[in-house]
Structure formats: C-alpha cells, structure tokens
Design a protein that fits this description.
By secondary structure, chain A is an alpha+beta fold. Chain A is about 20% helix and about 25% strand. By secondary structure, chain B is mainly α. Chain B has a domain of about 180 residues: Up-down Bundle (Cytochrome Bc1 Complex, Chain C), CATH 1.20.810.10. The chains are: A alpha+beta, B mainly alpha.
Chain lengths: ~220, ~300
C-alpha cells in the first residue's frame, strides 16, 4: 500500500522539484512515518523476545561466579594428635557431593611459640602449590614444602623461599569443638601471612595485587574479618 | 566423455562458450524413404527406467535450483599450479567430520558425571565392541586435527592466500583455530582420570592469572571456586553442543568464501604472459643479448 502510494505521489511530482512523498496516515507535524514506527516497534519487540531467552540463559551459566556454597567443616582428629614442630598429613573433603575429587590434603600442626603463634591454635596448610596447583609434599629433614612440578619451595610456615610460586601456601580455617579439631574453608595469605580470601594458584596477594586479582564472591571471607 | 554420460544431466559440466551442444553427426535421412523404427514397449520401458534418476534429479533441481549451485561448486576453476598443499583444508575438514562421527558414538556410552565418567570411559575401552578403537580415533584424531589446522594455516600464510580479497576468510579461519583449541581443551577433562584432572587444574589456574577478569573467568569455567560436579557437565555441554555448532556454522562460511573467491595460485607462478606476439626483431635481440652475456 505504502509503496503504491509512494509511486503515485512520486509520479505526480515534477522531476525538477521532488515533493516530499506523503505516505498514508501522514499528518502535519508527525515525528516519524508509519513505516518507521512499525520498523522500530518490530525490532524492539524482537529484541525483547531475544533478550527474554538469552539473558536468563547467560545468567544461568554465569551465576556460579556469584554463588557461595555453604561452609563445610570436617572433624579431623583430637587436639592431642597434633604437635607444633612437625606436620600431620590429613586428607579431608573440601567440596561436597563430588566424591574423591572433592577431597584435598592439608598439613596440620599446633601453633608454635617460637614463631609467634598461639600454642592453643591449630594451623592447617593446603598442599596446593601457589604456582599452578600441583600437590606439594612436606619434607621432614629439610622442614620445607617442595613442589614436584616446577621446583617451588616453601619454609616451615609455608612462606615461599624458592622457585616460581607467587605467594605462601594457602591455609584452611580451623576451630576446636570440644577436644576435636575441625577444618573449614580455604583462605590465602599475603607474603606477611595476613589472611585474605582464597585465590587460585598463580595469583599474587597483598598490596596492589588485591586489585589486579580481586577477591571472588564465590570464596569465603578470611578469618578475623 | 564416457564418465560424463554417467552423471545426470543437471549435474553435467556446463559447456564452454562456443562449444555448445549443437547438431553434430550426419544429417537425418529422408523420413519418407526410411521411416524411423517404432521402439517396442520393452524398449520404451527400459528407456524410461534409465531416465528415472535423471527425472528425479531434474524434479529436485526444478524446485531447489541446486544444480546450478552444485555445478558451479564442482566445476569451478582452480588456478594452475594447484598442488597437494591445497588439500590441507579438506584434510582438516575430514578430521573434523571424523571427530564429529566418533564423538556421536562415544556420547552413546559416556556419562558426564563426576562419579561415573571414568567408569564409563573404562567401559567403552574395555567392554564395548570396537570401543577402544572409536575412542582412540577420537583421542588421536583431536591431535591430528590441531596439527592439520596449523599446517593449513601455514600453507595459507606462506602462499600469501590471506591477502585481499580473502582477509575475512583468514579471520574466520583464526576463529576456527581458537574453537578447535577450545575443543581440545574441553575434551581433555572428559575422561576424568588423573591426567585430565590435573591438566584441567593447571589450565584453570593459568586462566586465573589473567589480571582483573582472570579470577572470574576461572570461576566461570569451573562453575565455582573449586572443580565440582558442575565443572564436568559444563565442559561436556561446551564440548559437544556449543562449540561444534559454532564450528559447523563457521566452516560453512569458510567454504562459501573459498568457493566464492576461488583459490590462489602458488606464489612461484608468474602471471601469464600476454598472448600478443612480440616483434621478431626484439626476440632476436633478446636471444643475442643473452648469448653475449653468457659468452663473456
């Protein structure tokens, strides 16, 4: 309809001064033509329909970034099982509901007075290397943690003393219920052993790095915060 | 010519200009003195039966116009000097088809759950008839595909085939390269053995070292702060639904542009010389000059 109208009007207009074609429904002072209004409306409705499908799907896929699970605490033994001058290797469940792959290893000891720690507290170091996540091993003779993959070395406190790791070993929150020791969520530490939220291996902690590797909403707040 | 007669008429090579199918052979005899023999019913039936495939194709062609597209695709010109290096793209496509087919059959037995994935792969390898063979084709074929993609890319680069007007095809090819690597990455976790688990762990941690968005990207890939139940199914979905669809669509665009733009001649071929004959005197002079140069 509109096309025919355009043609008729175009044919009537003289070639010298092409008059503005007046489509059906035209009125003085209109801000847009009927055709343009319908185009915008159709595209807008299509966009809304598309967004109604795409946005929930994307949100569904992205939601885990913002979701924090429940805190999981696991009893690992009596307080008397642990000493302050060496570590006990404990395997416990960090992620629930996925079987063996949810398990991780912690090196657990009592606080040592000579290191300025409270003798009553329990310290649990993760065996996850801060370089790329390989499992480190505590070497009794050297009182060091050594990573088999790329030669990362950590001292007794878990501070890096050699190799490519970017920060000390991660830790687990600990608490004592009755006489039983319980391990909780993971957290990371800065080079000064100040607790921060858990970071993935390879990410620096402390100072400006807290902005370059921001804390993730999926991790738990560190102890003492 | 004999082969050509086997191809249904709509798909036959179109004649070159000036070589049309005009009347050839002896002129028809006088119909009055020697009337044509009427074919028997049996002859007509066999003749019609022979025509059936042609008729079917013609029926489809009339409704789709596919024959013009297909003859254009199958009889397109390729430049002089086209050689075996030009088959690397087809080889990559073949590798992809192999991956798709074997992947479909692996999916019939595979269970994407953290508790059952390893057992289902072991079942495929140990119990299913030809299971280890199909799994092996998929596993080694993935490396073959990555290698072929890079060889194809090298051919295009060193032959200068990425230049105008084929830049967009190069870009599509690079996206296909990235998608192929993403397939290799996501597929690596699926057997869910120690190698898969630790390789993916390292990959997540490398992802996490990207500044600012890296930690969130790692969380997105893992679907959480640690590898969990959702990680495997997420990788499975990406590996067999998301990326294959994108790859198929982009391969379509890639091939369309190859057919549309044609391929390039290898760089060592000079452009054809103009066919106008040079004056004889110039030719002689050139020959003498060369001889003199050689004599010195």
């Amino acid at each position: 309809m509109a096309d025919e109208a355009d043609k008729q009007i175009g044919a009537e207009a003289s070639p010298r001064e092409p008059a503005a074609p007046k489509p059906p429904g035209y009125f003085e002072g209109e801000s847009m033509t009927r055709r343009r209004a319908f185009t915008i409306a159709a595209q807008g409705l299509g966009g809304i329909a598309g967004a109604a499908i795409v946005l929930p799907a994307v949100g569904f896929a992205v939601a885990p970034i913002f979701h924090r699970g429940d805190e999981h605490w696991e009893t690992i033994g009596a307080v008397g099982d642990f000493v302050s001058d060496t570590y006990r290797q404990i395997t416990f469940t960090e992620t629930e509901g996925v079987g063996k792959i949810g398990e991780t290893t912690a090196y657990v000891r009592k606080g040592a007075k000579e290191l300025g720690e409270n003798p009553g507290e329990i310290i649990a170091l993760s065996n996850r290397c801060a370089h790329l996540g390989c499992p480190v091993r505590y070497v009794e003779a050297a009182a060091n943690f050594i990573c088999p993959c790329h030669g990362g070395v950590y001292d007794f406190e878990g501070k890096r003393i050699g190799g490519p790791p970017v920060r000390p070993l991660d830790r687990f929150q600990t608490r004592i219920r009755g006489k039983q020791v319980e391990l909780g969520p993971r957290y990371s530490v800065t080079s000064q052993l100040e607790p921060v939220r858990a970071r993935d291996p390879g990410q620096f902690t402390g100072g400006i790095w807290e902005y370059l590797y921001p804390p993730r909403p999926s991790t738990f707040p560190p102890p003492g915060s | 010519m004999k082969l050509d007669s086997l191809i249904p008429a709509p798909l036959r090579k179109p004649p070159k200009p000036g070589q049309g199918s005009g009347p050839t052979g002896p002129a028809p005899a006088d119909l009055k003195t020697s009337p044509p023999e009427r074919p028997s019913d049996a002859e007509r039936a066999t003749g019609r039966a022979k025509e059936t495939p042609h008729d079917v194709l013609a029926w489809v062609d009339q409704r789709t116009g596919a024959a013009g597209f297909l003859t254009g695709l199958l009889y397109r010109k390729v430049p002089k000097g086209t050689n075996w290096f030009y088959t690397l793209g087809s080889a990559t496509l073949f590798a992809f088809i192999t991956q798709a087919v074997t992947g479909v059959f692996l999916a019939m037995f595979y269970t994407p759950s953290t508790s059952d994935a390893y057992a289902s792969i072991a079942h495929i390898n140990n119990d299913v008839f030809l299971g280890s063979f199909v799994h092996g084709m998929h596993k080694w074929g993935s490396s073959v595909m990555v290698i072929l993609v890079f060889l194809h890319m090298g051919r295009v680069f060193f032959f200068g085939a990425y230049k105008y007007p084929r830049e967009l095809n190069w870009v599509i090819g690079v996206v296909l390269l990235i998608l192929t690597l993403a397939m290799a990455f996501t597929g690596y976790l699926l057997p869910f053995d120690q190698r898969s688990f630790w390789a993916s762990t390292v990959a997540f941690n490398i992802t996490g070292t990207g500044p600012v968005i890296g930690p969130y990207l790692a969380d997105f890939l893992r679907a959480g702060p640690e590898i969990g139940a959702t990680t495997l199914s997420r990788f499975y979905s990406i590996h067999m639904l998301l990326i294959p669809g994108a790859i198929i669509a982009l391969i379509g665009a890639h091939l369309y542009l190859v057919v549309k733009l044609g391929t390039t001649a290898p760089p060592w071929l000079r452009a054809a010389k103009p066919k106008t004959a040079a004056p004889a005197s110039q030719l002689d002079a050139g020959a003498e000059g060369n001889g003199a140069a050689a004599g010195r």
